[in-house]
Design a protein that fits this description.
Radius of gyration of chain A: 22 Å
Chains: A alpha+beta, B alpha/beta, C alpha/beta, D alpha+beta
Oligomer: heterotetramer
Shape of chain C: globular
Shape of chain A: globular
CATH class of the largest domain in chain A: Mainly Alpha
CATH class of the largest domain in chain C: Alpha Beta
Number of domains of chain A: 2
Chain lengths: 392, 230, 598, 175
Amino acid sequence: MFTINNDRSKFPELDDAGNALIDLTSHKYLKLWQGPQHPGVTGNMSLELTVTGDEIVESKTHVGYLHRGFEKLMERRTFIQCFPTCIRLCVAEPDPNEYLLSSCVEELAGIEVPETAQWLRMLALEMARLQVLLRQVPGQAGTFALGLGYQWGNYIRDLILDRFEELTGGRVYHMYILPGGVRGLLPNGFKNRLEENLKLVDEFLPNVWDLIYTNSVFKKRAKGLAVIPKEWIDQYGIYGPAARAAGIMRDVRKTHPYLFYSEIDFEPFTTDESDVFARSLVRWHDLKMTVDIIRQILAKMPEKGDIKAPTPNVMHWKIPKGETYVKCESSRGEYGMYLVTDGSDKPRRVNLKGPSYTHATSVLEKLLVNANIADTAAIMVSLATCPPEIER
Amino acid sequence: MKKDFDKDALSDMYKDKFLAPENEIRFVNAPDGSIIEVNPLDDYFCQERPKELKPRKGVVEKFLNWARAESLWVLGFGTGCGSIEIPPLSTPRFDMYRFGVQMRATPRQSNVFIISGYLSVKTLKRAIRSYEQMPSPKYIIALGSCTINGGMYWDSYNTINRLDHYLPVDVYIAGCMPRPEALLAGFGKLKELIKEGKAEKANEYIQNLDWYKANQKKIIKDWNMPDYNW
Amino acid sequence: MSLKDVLTPFTAWKRIAKEPVTVIDPFNDRPGADRYRGFHQNDVEKCIGCGTCEAICENEAIDMVPFKDPISGDSGLRPSLDYGRCCWCALCVDVCTTNSLKLSNEYTWITTDPEDFRFTPGVDKKSWDENDKGWVKPEPNYEFYNTQRVEMEHLHPEERVDSFIEMVKGYSHEQALAEADRCVECGICIATCPAHMGIPEYIKAIRNEDLEEGLRILYETNPLPEICGRICTHKCETVCSIGYKGDPLSIRWLKRYIADQVPSERYQSILNTNDINNNGKRIAIIGSGPAGLSAAHYLALMGYQCTIFEQYEKAGGMMRYGIPEYRLPYDQIDKDIDYILSLGVEIKYNTRVGRDITLDQLSQDFDAVFSGTGLHLGRSTGIEGSDNEHVYYSTDLLRQITEGKDIEVAEHIVVIGGGNVAMDITRSLARMQKVKYGKVNIIATSLEKEENMPADREEVVESREEGAVLMPGWAPQRIEIQHGRPTGLHVVKCNSLFDDTGRFNPQCDMEVKNFFEGSMIVQSIGQGMDLSYVDEKWMEGLSFGPRGRVKTNEYFQTDLEWFFMGGDIIEGPDVIHGIANGHKAAIGIDRYLQNLKD
Amino acid sequence: MKQLVEIIQNHFPINDIDLRKKSLAFISIHQNQAIPLLEWLKTTHGYTAFVLLTAVDWIEENRFQLTYLISNPENFTELGVRVFIDREKAEMVSAHHLWKSIWVYQRELKEMFGINFPDSPRVNESFILEGWDTIPPYRRDFDTKQYSEETYFPRPGRSTNDPAKHMKSKLYPKD
């Protein structure tokens, strides 16, 4: 009865101004919802896709499934109470949240953090990056149904979580970096055990390279997919590995060295291809670099020392009126916190800005146009979208 | 166990909230030029009340329970923080497959729903739909403080405080968040319950459907779907 | 696409020979790490129920529930956890003032009933109670509040030993803020303070730099803040919760800071006592010590016309005549008293009830009488030689020093007694020795051993700093008299003071003897009361309790309805009890007179 | 930063200058001048990257503070531009023509603060919340705890005691 029209060249139909003209009551378009269930790599988020055939003509991002109102909740908590609260902003990599809150508070209150504590903070941040990348690097191949690397990576990640458990007392929510310092020195024998795990990562890196980056299927699907032009970087707000894949050096550790990153020797990898493959490649190099940075930190950090600067009584710690913006490099890119205080013992306003805020909304919506339905997951993962960061 | 329930309050609650545009009746042009009427509420949903799953007699029920217990298929819908501990479970270190537990991508194939932490109102709506689409017998495992009494987000305007007002929960696991080992122990407990024939919360949900629906509709402001999603 | 790209992924097969990494028994093989933040444990014996854990919990997961009856320094409450709220951040552990709370490394708790997740650690038995691993507060130098108190600056011993200038300098603005910041606002101290002062509130006022509010809070329960801020026995500090991990809060010095900072001329406008309606009733108060002044203050605020009868020429009682000037300068006493007088209180000086006017007369002229006559009579050791004219009572000497009388200061002095008064007279005489002879040569001996001496620790230390020799643990036996003048004190070693039943019964070792040389002996082993002013007719109406004290009801009303008694003769002896008694008696007098009217 | 602020001062009336650190400064400017200032900074001073836009509710002063944080990727400096707008008539000119990402922020502010940005794309679509029918949640006068208690059935059966009050009631109830 129906004749199927295979010629999709005229879809979407454009109006005179060049905007897509989508008439859902015609048979040409279909609305398809992807999400909010998530397959494990990203959080809950849904995409409202308008498709023709298996090609996407329009995409709208819907978030809010994980909205807890952190910024509101923190306004009614004292600064020390904000500390366990704010870290739950991002589940996969909670440590940058801890660090940002602490350093915002320290900056506004004028507190100098002891040297040992700063090194320990760096270690925690890098270990967090390591465990995220161990999921993310093979996870990219997972979106093309190559799940083996994901199995390997998750095992090593779990060992890193064991180290976190030893160091911080928590597996996923570490609650380690608090305003004024950190919550513990390295346990006995920690360095050796961590080194054992790093050796596994060393072994993992070439294995996953052989498995994924030389893989003809992965190459075929990822290369040339979702290319981000250079001009978009500032225009859309693209950070971290995604920017570096476009040949633009964006790494807060290099541009605004915080903690003791200026004493560490590292050079983030950049490439020009700017497609899914390139972004994944940048992450692979990041993983390699992170292992190297952790080794340098372990070699350079002092064994003993103060872990916390004396602070006023945290039960009623008032911070002078002021505002500041502090940022750090998360595995997804520049991660910043804007804190406004009004002289009381609670923050006036906290605003957290992660790369996903732009990556998953304006960038993703734009990149998905003309992509295939089967590639949406790959594009999402390549941008490292983390919905809790968007809606907070 | 029948829950106390005010019938008058219900009729107020059941007043139609607005329907989402995509659920309104619409007309679609077929390629051959004919016009087709689409009524999503009739076409996509079933309007019938759900039925309880009555246990069989004696050994048959025992055998069924054994089979159910040893094959728990979990819906891959991570609702909150706790979902971060699902990947370790499904990878070699903890390997939940050896306990007969595995992840499924759609509700139609699953019979265990892990509510892994807080539920925002927006997610609750999806969780209810997913739960109702799951075939009986079905079970809910609730993870962490958030599902018990609000947890971290006890004063948040957007997350529910106690899950048992909206969905029936078989097993609770304490922690924020519970570790994979605790989760495996939770599956162990659920298996025990199923084998003893005590995991009957899904039937309780159907018995008290009106009470649950009233609670759900109280907080889900735009209830733009039919009451039953199966 | 090269062939290599097709083939290399197959190298993954090389891992097929690897050892599996699966945890065989995940329920038993994987205990939490040593620092793991698992389920809570609480040492209920160590815990004092201060509720700081409840205050810091951002999830309101902790409730304070009754565990036993409260006692001074222990609220009797214990934290109860709601695991429907907890997020295992362990801030409660880190802030715990007594280090009683910790987390075990156990983490599995599964149930079908969500109501199960509430328990009181340490009270409700749990499987992890004996678990000795898990999160404890990190050490060292990891504190949520400063455990060290801000040091109070004193005059250097060399500077102070030859003068009666006040030796404690008082906090500066910054010091007071820093010290007030240490308070965790638990409020355990309030119950221990006899006057139940609102300690956390006035410390909060210091933090908020609102000293006027602070002064108002002080005057709610204590009309002598300058005096109390200097010489209070600060029982509150002995129970202070933050004292468990370091120094207790300097509550006394902070009180003094508030009173010192507000000038006396602003008191009336701050405390809003410019116009008090006089209700026409008249109250007589015997003695202008702390109890009398406190009663007069609160009665005056209620509109009563108060008249104080004072036997000496200045008001203040023991505060003026019993405490040396270097601890409590006279102008500070005057500041507090002048404010009370500004409320319309009248003092008749040099008027001793019983000598210049009778109690009987007062009972007729006034609607009610309050007596706070204190303990003024020195108590004698009763040993051989104690009736010599060069053997003194400390109370008499201290009064004479205050009055500026010329008193005998010998080159070698022995003081008998280990209390605060003994230290006062020791240090006063030391100063006078220093002036007169250029050196200090004074021995203070007490029955009690060093660790049991009733004097405040700082008094003991400061006495030593000023050159006095303290010899605790000796029982006086006999005063050696030669040519009508003492030459020294014979003592024997005292081993214990109380027998098993707790009765006072000193046990001495007669073999261990000692001799303290001194041509002047001061007895300072306690004071007695003098009730000679009570006419016989009224004496019969009073009943007496243990230790010869007059029996009163909770409002310090004696069996004679119009006659109220308080202060050292009833409770104490110390200033704060006197103030508390005076306040309570003022309420009692008001109730009594109100009822009379109805 | 100091240099830049001086240059801006020569062109725009700014006040409340806060040189927070070497690479970060905050300035305030009148509502009407803000978007021209941003455009000027973007085109002539290399502030081509947009970091964030957020609002602070100063309810005591009856106004909202909007903070536009922009950054210069060449010299790695950031500049926060504060704009104060009336709380009763919360409306601001949209800046979506300057950066492609800014409409998302404006859409969020509309929903969470109730600050309108006319002409901003999709500004009236709900973003995070679904079916929200009371005052926007990020406003200070919205009490999240009260709302939560009224809406989400907190589990009953808990009670607590204040140590000081408990001791008073047990030890000296009559004072």
